[in-house]
Amino acid sequence: MSIQQTLTEQERLARLDPERLRRLVGLVEHDAAGDPFPVTGWDALVWVVGNATQAAVYYQLVYGMELVAYCGPETGNRDHVGYVLRSGAARFVLTGGVDPASPLLEHHRRHGDGVRDIALEVPDVDRCVAHARAQGAVVLEEPRDVSDEHGTVRVAAVAAYGDTRHSLVDRSRYTGPYLPGYRAVRPSETPSPAAPPAPALAALAPAAPTPAPAPLFQALDHVVGNVELGRMDRWVDFYNRVMGFTNLAEFIGDDIATRYSALMSKVVASGDHRVKFPLNEPAAGQKRSQIDEYLQYYDGPGVQHLALATDDIVRAVDVLRARGVGFLATPDSYYTDPALRARIGEVRVPIDELRARGILVDRDEDGYLLQIFTRPTGDRPTVFFELIERHGSLGFGKGNFQALFEAIEREQARRGNF
Ligand SMILES: [Fe+2]
């Protein structure tokens, strides 16, 4: 079955095609003709961080991202710096205040490092904004053209949960590296994890062009939002009405939540499932919910985790762990549990290999997925990453909620503490 779909600029640059995206992120066929709010795909995740200059080096050296553009005082932006990084089709923009009066500094003081803007590429900004406004969305920035020598981008922004926003970007008339105001960064300006060759040796042997290493992740899969108790359905309704997103079947409700994980979760997705937003709210449990902890430390609703789609989760975990990234530990009982083997069946990686790395498995009627979660990326216990390798499954690892927590309870029971 062929999928005729528009690719985002980033996807074309990353040489992804619809078939590859179907495997990586679960793209499905969708007729955009009746879509009230057509979305081509992710444009960028725009972060506010405490030190963008250092974070840009971190994401290059640790996550293997490529620095492609920069803005700051040298390019005429006296308020803040911005570093644009990419890995496959995924684009991060790291911003940090320079002027002591920059609003980004106040944003950071309140929230810490986090994602301020989940920017989406759309074919018709004005149509999207008109529909959003008619459905009661707060329009933060009216549609406007921004131009430089590379052409014109049309942008607008609507408010999402907390201080999070969605920029809407039409870059069909633009050829620059990111947005007007940014300049392209040459490869020589980017750090390399390998030590530079000694000058004498370099003179003897002319530098052979070294092929860029394959990216550790190729695309964004989903971005999860944490909202306040009782507000999840309101935001599900927002994405249904304002963006025409549909609800996916995956639902983590009271039944699991109150006994094990103390959260409730629903998932909304764009028509072709390119853009997927799970939304969590805390559930009343015996202990304090992880969502409550997030809401306290982010000082309100915000982005909880970003799932990075990879075609080789084993390599990604090995490389990231060697570079110092911490992952959540998975109890051994998860892997020794006969129920797990019965549940997951055959997967491409032997279970012992998964166990050695703490990688989780989930299976549904469409296939399976491998996933793992990092520790929080910054100082506060807020935003973190997930790595996800899909093999047909369109889910989000729901089975792991129950399996993980049941495995823990069995351990507790063996110790006589349950
Ligand atoms: Fe996730």
From TrEMBL:
Highest taxon above the source species: Bacteria
Record-level Gene Ontology MF annotations: 4-hydroxyphenylpyruvate dioxygenase activity; identical protein binding; metal ion binding
Annotated localization: Cytoplasm; Endoplasmic reticulum membrane; Golgi apparatus membrane
CC terms in the record's Gene Ontology section: cytoplasm
UniProt keyword Endoplasmic reticulum present: yes
Listed SUPFAM superfamilies: Glyoxalase/Bleomycin resistance protein/Dihydroxybiphenyl dioxygenase (SSF54593)
Principal subcellular localization: cytoplasm
Subunit structure, interactors included: Homodimer.
Stated name of the protein: 4-hydroxyphenylpyruvate dioxygenase
Organism for this UniProt entry: Pseudofrankia asymbiotica
Lineage: Bacteria, Bacillati, Actinomycetota, Actinomycetes, Frankiales
